[in-house]
Amino acid sequence: LPTCRGTTSDATEETQDLCDQVKQQVEKKTGVNYVEYKAVKYRSEVVAGTNFLIKVHVGGANYIHLEIFRGLPHNGGKVSLTKVKDHQTKDSPLQPF
Question: Is the Transport keyword given for this protein (predicted)?
Fold first, then answer.
């Protein structure tokens, strides 16, 4: 199972782009259409590709955590949503789930 042992950092354009690529999948899994959907923090771990664990602000005091995998470039660099954990807060620890 992915662990994302890396340290937590502020989100970047790259992490927002990853989140945007899986937004429809996230909305399908949670049953919510997010007006606000902004990556704020992330952790990553390089495996045969990269696992990302990302905290996304979805409005008000509401956050969700996304686990996203991005394959290696020579394998097409495909981005896929692994898991979604909703009902999180700004202070919820960004840990594997």
Answer: no
